[in-house]
Amino acid sequence: MLPGLPPTRRRLRAVRHQLRRRRRLLAAALTAVAVLGVLRALAPPEPDTVEVLVAARDLTSGTLLDHGDLVAHDYPQDLAPPDAATTALGRVLAAPVGRGEVLTDARVVGPGLALAEPGRTILPVRLPDAQMAALLQPGDEVDLVATDPGTGQASLVADRVTVLATPTRATGDPVGDGIDGALVVVATTPEESVQITSAALAQYLTVSWSR
């Protein structure tokens, strides 16, 4: 303390003394603020996002989508699948979806299934034997055989068709009632789709596996 100095001068001297003691700390802080400003100026802008639907949990094929099965997330627009589904309530999964996976139109029963099999015809087929249909899983490749109930003659209708969905499972009864059969969705050629449809009207359809 300098008793001969006025109080104001003493306070100014004290402030200058404290500033000198902390000048390195202040200089470092100002430098950090300047660097942060430069980094923010050079940082790329935040990417555009789009809202997508992702699975809230692991979902099995045939799930009838309900509230709680899917949640909306903002996703980078450049990374979002172009066929991301925008609506899903009441739709049936054609294939399993893992937790956190973006739902696409190719994963639900409907026209979007054609995206999974370009150039192929997507055809719903009702198999008379529901228990046989319950053996099928999406991704299976099977042959369709038609048997004439009058003569007992069997013929190959289509070979190596791809099972895309088993929507009957969405009812919670994977084997159905055994009378009306069960519906499966397959991918086949346009020519074979006509043969399958014709055979399904008057003959008994079964499936077989071949190597």
Distance between the termini: 101 Å
| Largest sheet: number of strands, sense, barrel closure | 5 strands, antiparallel
| Overall spatial form | rod-shaped
Order of helices and strands: HEEEHEEEHE
Strand order of the largest sheet: 3-6-5-4-7
Strand content: 15-25%
Please give the count of helices. 3
Q: Helix/strand-derived class?
A: alpha+beta
pLDDT < 50 runs, ≥5 residues: 170-179
The total strand number stands at 7
Oligomer: single chain
Percent helix range: 25-40%
Arithmetic mean of pLDDT: 79
Radius of gyration: 34 Å
Write the SSE topology.
Elements: H1 7-42, E1 49-55, E2 70-76, E3 121-127, H2 130-133, E4 141-147, E5 154-165, E6 182-188, H3 190-202, E7 204-208
Antiparallel strand pairs: 1-2, 3-6, 4-5, 4-7, 5-6
Structure description:
The chain is of the alpha+beta class and 211 residues long. It is 25% helix and 25% strand. The chain is built from 3 helices and 7 strands. It has helices spanning 7-42, 130-133, 190-202; strands at residues 49-55, 70-76, 121-127, 141-147, 154-165, 182-188, 204-208. The strands form 2 sheets. Strands 3-6-5-4-7 form a 5-stranded antiparallel beta sheet. The protein has a two-stranded antiparallel sheet with strand order 1-2. Strand 4 (141-147) and strand 5 form a beta hairpin. It starts with 6 loop residues before the first helix and ends with a strand. 27% of the residues are buried.
In short:
The chain has 211 residues and is an alpha+beta fold. It has helices at residues 7-42, 130-133, 190-202; strands at residues 49-55, 70-76, 121-127, 141-147, 154-165, 182-188, 204-208.
